[in-house]
Structure formats: structure tokens, C-alpha cells
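Co-fold these.
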Amino acid sequence: MLRNLKLYFRYSAQNIRGLMEYKNDFIVSTIAGGIWQAVGLVFLFALFHNISSVAGWNMYEVSLLYGCVMFSEGAYTLLFQGSTGMKHRIRTGEFDRYMLRPVNLTTQILGAQINFAGLCTLITACSLMVYALRRLHLETHAGMLLLFGINLLFGVCIRANMELMGQSIAFCLINVSSLQNILYDVQNFAKYPLTIYPKSVRVVLVTVLPHAVVSYVPVCLLLGRLALWPYILGVPCSVVFITWLRRLIFNKAITKYESAGN
Amino acid sequence: MIRFFRKYKGFAGCTISTRLNYRGALLMNIVNASVSLVASLFLWNVLFQEQSVISGYTRDDMIVYLMIVFLMQSILGNGTEWEIAGSVLEGSIIMDLIKPISFQSRCLFQTIGSAAAEGAVAAFVTGTAAVCLCDLGKYLAPERFFLFAVSILMAFFVKFCISYLAGLCCFFTSNGYGVIYMRQVITDIFSGALLPLSFYPEWFEKIAKVLPFQSIMYTPTQIFLGRTEGAQAVNMLLLQLVWVIVLWVFGYFFFRFAIRRVTIQGG
Amino acid sequence: MPIIARDLTKVFKMPAHAPGIAGALKHVVHPQYTEKVAVDHVSFEIHDGESVAYIGPNGAGKSTTIKMLTGILHASGGEIEIQGVNPYKDRIANARNVGVVFGQRTQLWWDIPVEESFRLLKDIYEIPDARYKENMELFKEVFGLGEFITRTARRLSLGQRMRADLAASLLHDPKVLYLDEPTIGLDVTVKENMRELIRMMNRERGTTIILTSHDLQDIEDLCRRVIVIDQGRIISDVEREQLQSMFAHERGVRISLKKPGRDVYQKLLEHPELRLEMEDAHTITVMFDLHIHTAYEVISLVEELADIRDISVIEPDIKQVIEKIYRSELQVNS
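Predicted complex below.
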């Protein structure tokens, strides 16, 4: 574990060096990452310009949901963007190289690329959450805030697992870009209170695609709409479950790898 | 004119048949786009339970609005830009320069091809969804529908011109993603794809209305929903036409400018 | 410990469905596949320090076998053991023991200086400092790695890149080195340079070499044993010299005459068992079967007809032998 972590950072350090080769690209993609988030924010603010609440949640509360989703996306893009290029590497046989290294495959995949577009997203997410928390004047325990912070990290973990699950399918030589986009777009569901969806959608969002655990669950905890004990019982289970599911799918998929060319 | 059409129609035809060959991908694209649509339908559904009119839109208005936006976005994905960006960045644009055709027209006809293929599927999906979800009949008046069809056509040309310009920007940066994402964000916000323009604060709405982007989504939706009628609608169509001409001419000169840069630098 | 492959088999499954949406949907409900057997019950054993050429025509299953040995592909059947490790059950342990060079694909990082790539490899393989330094010195000396080590892989010429790639695969002192078309597209000096290092590793460190190549010079220079595979099956597995002598009945002498030898050529045509070729007016090449004639007999024959200025003997080389095997002119039983 420690070795994997160390190697991940070594890989990432190299990636940064590589990025510096193309300074213009690096700047443009960082800015583009920030601007991309503007769409979400404009929607949020313009919507609440006309309404006062969504299913009983005011703008600042919904902002927290947005913030959580954006945080996981930003951190994922910044740190683990590597998994997004998997499809390409599998199709061209470049993945061979990963198989030849005495390093855990997940570490290699996640460390294959970093993308500074995520940095802007991360900053936007944090600013939005801080702004919302101030306006909400919550009288929460500092421990609760700490727990909320830890949950943000869980969110990144869940996010990475879901992405890897989506990418695994690329090993079976199916064109996954649409599927990936679908998985990506499902995160939009997590930007609003879970109560606006029918039961079946809610079940999916807390189990197989636990986007709700990234945003809705911790925000409810923070706002006092969820008691502490179901949180403490539920969230770790969810993280463990999705990690287990990802490993199962990934290990199965890897046996289907066919390399390419000769 | 006929000769011009004959010369380029092959490009449209080829694109249509390529798209139809990848029917699976075509359908997946539509399914993919529907995910976000479903999320926003749930959201609006809840919002309209709390109040019946939001910023002048009823529930049915909003559903129809979302469907038209969905349709327009399916017709005009960002394929054009990726293609131009690709051929500029890989240098295969050279192959276009040595042929006796206009690059701009070639791109247009390819875009028409893909729009025809994707538009047919999307029109079917959105049409069905709209019939199921709301009382579509009240919006269907013949003369209004005619104006709507014209405005969609114009919207297509405006969107093409903007995409074309964005694609050409790749002559000046080697980062295709950045340019295309930026174009997409700006179009989404200012065209009304994100929200009807009347949802924005007044100053913002005013800015949006002087920019060309509103021709893409805002004009067709307003005409279909009957929010602009008669002379006012015709005026909006004329405005679209002006934008098409201005942007097309600008695109023409921008290409010449950009290509000179490349040929001087030796690509 | 040896490399053991027993009944190694790889079957690729390709989805077979009727064209169109209907066909694709039907495939989802009731999947049907066509099977292609790329490697068919291949067995061999390679001992430490051996140097083996694994050759065959295009599409014979060479690369597929190598990819199974290295743990990239999962075998459909059979067993593999490399240094006591099953390469895909214990991929990481196997990866530490082996080095791989793919001639057509670099394993260096494109956008960072070669030096940095090497340092990253040092961390990945946990190479001790002293060993790392020693190896780098060696590569700099044999390969002139120092000249281009500060450049990014993207900016290297093919020759430099391949040298860097070979060095990268040897950095961690692998016990087994797989070379898949290592010299493809390289010029003669670089080829020779690479072979020199490979030979050195094999001789001095006892590195097991497994090579696939279409360049027969590679095989002659590097390998003592040759396994020939065709259509997924091993058709020959013998020592290289044995292979050469077993099948090269044919020898040749190249004779230059003092005077133009058109008439000599005409006279020699009376011996139909000889294959003749006039290289120029003074030079005749005579190919003969060792079982029928000796070189001495052939030379005497010519000497009776004309004055000889010079003679050279043409030895059979592996190229002719392998070309014959590929053309199925030779049936080989190991």
C-alpha cells in the first residue's frame, strides 16, 4: 500500500514534468477546466434567481450538494485523470507496458496522467462550499465539519472506483466512450436532493452508483437531516462495497485483455 | 447554385452513410444525452409542483423547451469542431488544400450529413417523449410550425459558423480541448441551452440578446412556444439570417488569415 | 530455474454476428463467436542462460506466445512457469524477473527526459543505488547513452530510442530478456551495437535470451537454439548449428577464372546435378549436393577445363534454412 502510494506520487511527479513540455496546453486546459464549471454555477444561480427552494432545500443547501460533486470531480481529474485514457491505451496495445511493470495495475492506471483542469474545479468547489456554509450560519459541531471533510475524500475514492469500473469494460473491446459519458452524467443526479427522484433511482444512487454518498448523504448529516449512527454504519460500507465491486469487475476484465498487433 | 450543390452533396451523403454504419454509437449518443435530460426533467417536475409558472413558463412550456434544446443539441454536436481541430492538428488539412474545393463548404456539407442522421433519431425520441409528457397539441399551429422549421434551419447555420470558427482557432493553439470546451460553455450559457434567457438577471439577458448565440436555441424555442408571433417572429428570423451571413463571411476571411499563417510557417 | 511451457494454448474469440442492428441485438441475447487458435499446445523448456530464437512467419503465434510468457495475455489452456512463477497469476513477481523489448513500441515515457525515465524505473524495480550506477556506467560505455540521456524520448532517433529501450529493459538485471523484433528498422551499426550488449549480458550475467526476429543475422549472432513455430504449432526445436547442418546439403564454390569462362560454363552444363550461375564473364558459382559431390571434386572438375585464379566456399547460412522451412520444403522432426 505504502509502496503503491509512493510510486503513484513518483508517476505524478513525472507527469508534471511532462506537462511542462507543453506550457501553452497546460495553461489553456487549466483555464478551460475552470470555465467548464461556470455552466453549473450559472445554472444554479440563475435558477434560484427565479425560485426559492427545491424540495425544501434553499440555494445554499443545494450549493453544498454542487460543491461535493464538483470536489470529487475536481480531485479525480487532477489526480487520477489517467484512467480516462485507458480506452485508447487498450485499443492501441499500449497497455502492454503496464502489464510488464512490477507495479499494481490500479496504481499505474490512476497515475498515468494528471490534469490541471481539475485544479480550477477543486478551487471552485471549495469556494462554493465555504460561501454556502457561511451564509447558512450553521451551528454545527467542529467534529461534524471534520467528518464532512473526510467524506469529501471518501467521495473521491467512490468516484475513482466508479470510473475504473466503467473503464474495465474497455478490456472487452467494447466502445466505452458513450458508457463513460453516461456514468459521468449520472453525477448530475447527485446535485439535487435525493427526494426528488423515484425510489428505484434512489436505490441505484446509494448502491451500485453511489453518487448520493458523495454529496447528498454528507450534506444531510451536516444539515442535521441525518442522524450520526446511520451515517457511520452506512458510508464505510458503501465505500468498501464499491471498492470490492470494482476489484471484482476489474480483475475479471483484465483476463479479457487481448493486446494488439504483433 | 446547382453545380455548387452537386459538387458538395457527396460529402453529406458519405457522412450520413458513415453515421448509419455506426448505428450503435448513434443510439448510444442519444441514450447518453438523455441521462442529463432525465435528471433535469425530475428537477423541473418537482419545481412545478411548488409553483405553476416560473419566469413566465408553465410546466408544459418547460418540457417542450427542454425537448427542443435536446433536439438542437443532437443535431449539432461538437463533431464539426473535433474534425476541424483534428485535421488542423494532425496536418491532414493539407489534403483539403490541394483539392479544388472550399474547405468551409466541405465542412458545412459534412455537418449537414451528420445532422440529418442524428437529427432524425433525435426528432423521433424527443417527439415521442414530448407527446407522452405534455399536451403537445396546443403548440402545433401550421404557420407557426413553418416559421419554426425555418428558424431551426437558420439556427443550424449559425451554429455551424460558430463551430467552424472555433475549429479554426486550433491553428493558433495546439490544445483542441481547451478551445472546444470554451466554445461549448459560452454557447450553452448564452444561447439559452442551459436555461431560457428570461431566467437570467435582466442585464445578463440583455447581453445575451445582442450576441449571435441566442439565434441557436432561443429563437426557435420562442417561435415554437408562440412567445413571439407575426412581425416580431419574422424579425427574429431576419436577425438569424444576418448572423449567418456575417459569420459565414467572417469565417471565410478567418480561414484565409489562418491558412496564410500556416503556409508561411511551413506548417 | 527454467522456463517451462506445457501445452500452452491461446484461442481468440471473435464475436460473430449478422450485420445491422438486428444482428447486434441478437448477439447480445445469444452471443456467437468464431474462434481463432493463435497458439496450439506449445510445449518447451528453456534453461537458465540459454539463448533461444523463437521464429516463424507472420501470424504464426510468436508474439502471442511471448505475450503469454510475459503475463500480458492470459493463456486459454496449458501451463507456464517462469523462474518458478506463473506469469499471470503472479504478474508482479514475474515482472521483476524479466525484461522486455518490443521493437515497435517504446516503454519509455514520451515526454520526460530519458534520464528521468531511468530514475523512475529504478524506483519501480527497487534497484539498489550501487547496482543502478554500475549499470548506467556500463550502458554509457557500450551504448553511448550519455549523448542523448537528457533528451525526451520523443526527440530521439529510432536508433537512440531502441538503445535506450534495451538499456531500460536491462536496468534491473532481469533473469530473462524477451526481445520482440528488437532491431527492426535500425541501421547496421546500431544493430551490431545492440547485439553486442545482448551477447554480453547472456555471456557474463547468464541472462536467458528469448528472441523473435525476422532479421536472420540477429538469430545467427545471438542464439544457440532455434524454435520454429508455424500456425500456432512448434515445427522444429533444435540447436542452431544442427539445424544448419541437417538441412543444408547444399554447398557452393565460387570460382574465378583467369580467362572468360563462357565455354567452361557450357561444358559444366553436362552435369545436371550441379546448379550453375555466371556472376560475370570470369566468375562461376557452382552449387552442389554434399551427398553427391565433395567440394574437392567440383574444383577438380573445373580445373580440368580452365585455369583458376581464386576459389571461395559458400557456407549454408540460417537464412536459407529458415526460408526453406517457411516454404515447407523441409519437414523437420525434432
